[in-house]
């Protein structure tokens, strides 16, 4: 049933956020999506992350309106009898943001996480925003989300050899709040784990073209590695194994 | 080996934070702790949450210095050959903050979570701050922490019939950040769960005396229940079943 596309180029956009302040849903990245999806007529939407707990239908409608502006039809994965078949046959796939724990939970529950990895690695164009980007990493251990459900595993697709911290926030030097900063949380992660973590600020995204991973948007991103000082990567940096080492 | 104390009064302090801005470790709550632990000479410290990834020894030393000021000796649970025996024999127990996922992971790994629940319910005085407070709830699903390790379960002690959101933060109306507010995250929790959640601001704590649960400190706390508007509870409120219903 799966049209083997292994000779095609891997094409992925991994965005920190769906929305930047003061603009509409996907608006800031729509010109990029128009060119990225230029050969695509239909997209499969995965609404499992349910931001603010909205229904799959409501969330899919939101994606449908945004993609309608670039003449791409959207169908929600929940509209298919067989979600795995929907993934295998999809022309392109978009996983929206929301709660990463619930997203990963449903990807396992509906038995689509492996198929998703396989088709994206074989060339099905993929867009992730926020939670949908977190699942492109090795595991979901750098999500900012609340653990509102217990997924069977934290392992995700590993489409890139590092993890994403979406909506990356710099410490606020004027804050009187004693909760951990994002940087402290990621440093705690590296006490127990070796996987590098990229803090992607809102408005930034990664464009993966085969094995090239490029930082896009206007902002720098912050790279955290175990036992090393965090470093800033400029926009347009190609994230190589040497940079991650 | 366990000195059965079931006729004693349950005594628990559940604090949002160990430290309020501009003061030393436990300083704001030390007068309260002096009276709460007035019959106690030694306290067992559980350093499993490892804030910023510090070692058990370093963390225990921090607790030792603070409790030294009120003439209470501190011993870390990791200094004992048998952690379960240490819990069962402890005169009083303090679990410090840090990463809730790692704390819960170690409580299961060291097989002490059940014993901890049993002794506290039987009268061993217990202090929790931050992550150490989250584990007093039904489960750890309202932690703000990053899932840096995968614990065998999210279930915790259930010493109180609701969950804690420590370091509760009100939405910042001036923020341009698109990540979810704390309130949105807790509302997402209630799409999937029924357990009430109490947002405890820094400087607030709960004092549990048998089955009375009283909000202490100067601030109000924010109570979230499934399918209801969130409400503010004033300081000194006794949190009854009616309030939680």
From TrEMBL, chains A, B:
GO molecular function: dipeptidase activity; serine-type peptidase activity
Xref: InterPro entries: Class_I_gatase-like, Peptidase_S51
SUPFAM superfamilies: Class I glutamine amidotransferase-like
Keywords: Cytoplasm, Dipeptidase, Hydrolase, Protease, Serine protease
CDD domains named in the record: GAT1_Peptidase_E (cd03146)
UniProt catalytic activity: Dipeptidase E catalyzes the hydrolysis of dipeptides Asp-|-Xaa. It does not act on peptides with N-terminal Glu, Asn or Gln, nor does it cleave isoaspartyl peptides
One Pfam family here: Peptidase_S51
GO biological process, one term: proteolysis
Subcellular localization, as worded in the UniProt entry: Cytoplasm
Cellular component aspect of the GO annotation: cytoplasm
Major enzyme class: hydrolase
Homology family: Belongs to the peptidase S51 family.
Protein name: dipeptidase E
Lineage: Bacteria, Pseudomonadati, Bacteroidota, Flavobacteriia, Flavobacteriales
